Amino acid sequence: MSSSPTPSERERSDAEAKAREKEEQAKLPYKWTQTIKDVEIAVPVAGNLRGKDIEVVMTKTKLKVAVKGQTPAIDGDLTHAIKVDESAWTLETVGGGGKEVSIHLDKSNKMEWWDAVVTNAEYKIDTSKIVPENSKLGDLDGQTRGMVEKMMYDQRQKEMGKPTSEEEGKMEMLKKFQAQHPEMDFSNAKMS
After folding, report:
1. Confidence tier at 192 by pLDDT (50, 70, 90)
2. How confident is the model at residue 51 (pLDDT cuts 50, 70, 90)?
3. Which long-range contacts (C-beta less than 8 Å, at least 24 apart) are formed by 131-135?
4. Of 152, 161, 121, whose CA–CA distance to 29 is shortest?
5. Which of its termini does the chain have fewer beta carbons within 10 Å around, N or C?
6. CA 68, CA 53: separation in Å to the nearest integer?
């Protein structure tokens, strides 16, 4: 009979896994972060390089980043598809006289987390531990925003003991029906 780990054991296990993941990610020849919408990658390069010395090949499903004539820092199939027209790269100067290739990848599916930049990455992250940033209503498309606003309204109504938007609609229909049929007795009518 197996038992579940205690909260302190789970916390210690999660901390160990996070430390191991951080250590593994530090071994990669690049740094990367993501939001639910995009991926940002920084590949450090020598400070004397120029844009013409850098080779970046981006397709919907592949990414290659290299200093010309050297082994690529990244070369493989992307974990998930990107929107190439919305993705870009730049060569930026960073502190200490170095430079980095800064890459922005716009995710095609804005509802999934990536466990790695490329499928052949030596190390992957545990996406189940990602805590997403709070989104704003303004970030949502019109239909989704309307649905979320309705849900929020209904929740507030329930908390105050008032009818939800659906219940209000039913009561309004009953009032109209009563007005059209004054000869009928609605004194025992129940709404469900």
Report:
1. low
2. very high
3. 132/36, 133/35, 133/36, 135/36
4. 121
5. N
6. 6
Task: Using pLDDT thresholds of 50, 70 and 90, give the confidence band for residue 122.
Answer: confident
Note the pLDDT tens digit of each residue in 24-40.
Answer: 888 889 999 998 889 99
Written as one string, the DSSP assignment of 65-116 is EEETTS--SEEEEBSS-B-GGG-EEEEEE-GGG-EEEEEEEEBSSTT---S-
Phi, psi dihedral angles at 113 (to 5 degrees): -95, 145
Scored b (16 or more CB within 10 A) or e, 76-85 reads: bebbbebeee
The whole-model pTM stands at 0.64
Distance of alpha carbon 73 from the chain centroid: 25
The Cα–Cα gap between 189 and 92 comes to 72
CA 3 to chain centre: 33
How far is 49 from 52, CA to CA, in rounded Å? 8
